[in-house]
Amino acid sequence: MNMDRKLDFIIGEEKSLADLLNLPEALKLLDGAVSAGASGAEITDYNGLVLAVSGFDAPASVVRTIYLEGEPVGILKVSATDSDSGVDGVADMLHSALNTLINSSMKRMLTSEAHTKIVNSSYQELLEANGMLAESERRYRELAATLEIKVEKRTEELNRAYATLLQKEKLAAIGGLAAGMAHEINNPVGFVISNLNTLSRYAEKLGEMLKFYRVKCEPVMPVDFALEAGAQWDRLKIDYVLSDIDGLMKESLDGAERIQKLVADMRGFSHVDEVGAVLTDINIELEQTLSVLKHETGDDVQIECKLGSLPRVNLNPALLSLAFLQIIQNALQLETPDLKISLKTGLQGDDVFIRIADNGPGIPPEIRDRIFEPFFTTKDVGHGIGMGLTVAQQAVQACGGTVVINCPEEGGTVFTITIPAEGIQQ
Amino acid sequence: MIEFDEQAKKLVIKLVYYGPALSGKTTNLLTLHDQLCNEGRGDLMVLDTVDDRTIFFDLLPLFYHSPSGFRIKLKVFTVPGQVRHDATRKAVLQRADGVVFVADSQKGEMGNNAESFANLEKNLAIVGLDIERLPLVIQFNKRDLPDVISETEVRNTWGKTGLHLVMASALKGSGIVETYSSIVAMVFDSLDARLGLNERFGVERADFLNSITKVMA
After folding, report:
1. Which of A50, A116, B30, B206 is the most exposed place for a label (fewest CB within 10 A)?
2. pLDDT, position A146
3. Using CA atoms, how far apart are residues A132 and B117, in angstroms rounded to an integer?
């Protein structure tokens, strides 16, 4: 409420006789005096201005002063043709009647005018107060109506933020673990590979020496001894051993080298050595992800890669790999027989696209909008918390891109990640 | 002030008797009316009372003509004390030149006094009057009643405010003209300082005060 409102009227304002004299009533009184025997009566204010008059002026007259708030403000003159007509009495009566008239007029002004103005000003204040109440009521209504929605939205935001945080922490932990393991595994694998190479050469030399002995000594050996040696050679299947060593060595070396590559990919995938956006080859990220996931892709899963030539894009590779991992993992969990996952990359206008398609049952239209929601899952309790695709979407968005899904009529689900080729603007 | 017309040589001053309900504001004016000299005052106008409680205000007009030909009119008002008439109180307070706060001396009334004084402070601010500069006299009325707080107590509490204190009994007639004379003197000094009543219009302080506070012989 506007409490500073200045009242714009003054109680006690000065009034003149003219303000207070009700002329029709005053004239009636003057006429009454004339009927009572006076020949004329008139009221003038203190400046000599005639306010009311009745009858006519006559030589014999009496004069009475009219007072207002104790001060003289006017003159009443009552005249008669001769002084013995009792005009004094008439003048006294008229004078007191006029005083009563003026006084009641004064009182009326003081009360009703003040009252009206006070009522008006109070009414204005009430109107303002009422307006403000209505306004605040409206705001409360609005608040009440939207509160639930707002709370829901905020809760969802909080959940999302919490889940992202959790996932990031997990990622950091995995990254740290991968880096540590990579170091611990790389050293032994390194000398295993080196030793296997040496061992393979040694075995070759031993085989050569054995053959030399056999060729050179057999003709000069005593027959008994030669027979015994031949039996021993056959019993120990030395021919087979000599022929198998090479294969075994090659296989072992191949295995050790695969370990080495896996460790390197894990290290690359976790990007523990990098922070923030760098120029990234998206195809390499995709390949590394597949390599990390190799243990999950059984023999019955067919993976098809059609990687187009892409420019290097400025983004955070750890986030992008995370998105690939989550989407491909999601596809690998499908229980489709003869599961086939097709990966395709390429340029479309100014955007790089990465398409990850599966031949699964597709996503029912009614939940298609919800699959990126945090904690939304179709899996049974204990088989995933419903964060994978949420994290994937957030990771792609953090790279400046978008991810959309669609389910073609012929079946399966297609995830299309689109990222501007210029990458994240600094 | 209500009006100041240099050409017409006329000044209309407003005095307001403020205070809690039933503290004796109207009785103050009635007693003044009875005690002051007939000359130079009009009749007391008591407007619309209900059960003897003021619902509008009371008005006692007084006037003074200086030998130099300057007219000063003094209108003394009371406000309705009841809480519900706050709008009327504000209206009456508008443009006051001086305020007499009539407090009730009875022991049980201190809360009402304080509340009413707070209301006075609030309303003065609303009508744009500065309580620090406005002539203000505190009257502790009803000293004739038995169960009143002691004068020492009153002075201890209110003395530090530096406000002028008067002990009065409106019913017995004591302290009423004293209260009135004090506020009139303060108002004159305040207006004289602002308008130069003495210097420019030849209004003598002593003559004005003698005339306007003259009691009946």
Report:
1. B206
2. 86
3. 29
Question: What single DSSP character describes residue A380?
Answer: P
Q: Tell me which residue range forms the domain holding A65.
A: 17-133
Residue type, B48: D
Q: Which of A69, A106, A113 to mutate against chain B (most B CBs within 10 Å)?
A: A69
Q: Average the pLDDT over A216-228 and give the result.
A: 88
Of A7, A71, A107, the CB nearest to B94: A7
**Measured between alpha carbons, how far is B77 from B180 in angstroms, rounded to an integer?**
12
Domain count, chain B: 1
| Residue B168 belongs to a domain | yes
Counting beta carbons within 10 angstroms of the beta carbon of residue B192, is it exposed (0 to 12), middle (13 to 18) or buried (19 or more)?
Answer: middle
Asked if B59 and A9 come within 8 Å (Cβ–Cβ), the reply is: no
Indicate whether B217 belongs to any domain.
no
Tell me which residues of chain B have a pLDDT lower than 70. 48
Q: Kindly report, residue by residue over A145-174, the tens digit of the pLDDT.
A: 888 888 888 888 888 777 777 766 776 676
Write out the residue range of the structural domain in which residue B37 sits.
Answer: 3-212
CATH number, position B24 = 3.40.50.300
Other beta carbons less than 10 A from residue B11's beta carbon: 23
Which residues of chain B have a CB within 8 Å of the CB of A69?
42-43, 61, 63, 73, 75
A306 touches chain B (CB under 8 A): no
| Contact status of A6 with chain B (Cβ, < 8 Å) | yes
Residue A119 lies in a domain: yes
By C-alpha distance, the chain B residue nearest A10 is B94
Domain annotation covers residue B59:
yes
Tokens 């008229």, residue? Answer: A94
Flag if A107 and B77 touch (Cβ within 8 Å): no
CATH of the domain at A118: 3.30.450
Residues of A in contact with B2 (CB under 8 A): 10, 12-14
CA B184 – CA B190 distance, rounded (Å): 10
What's the whole-number average pLDDT of chain A?
A: 83
Can you read off the two tokens belonging to residue A17? Answer: 């006789």
CATH of residue A292: 3.30.565.10
Q: Please give the Cα distance from B99 to B186 (Å, whole number).
A: 10
Residues of A in contact with B45 (CB under 8 A): 103, 106-107, 110
Q: What is the pLDDT of residues A232-266, one digit of tens each?
A: 999 999 889 988 988 898 899 888 888 887 777 77
Q: What is the ipTM, given to two decimal places? A: 0.82
Cβ atoms of A45 and A73 within 8 Å: the answer is yes
Average pLDDT over residues A376-391: 69
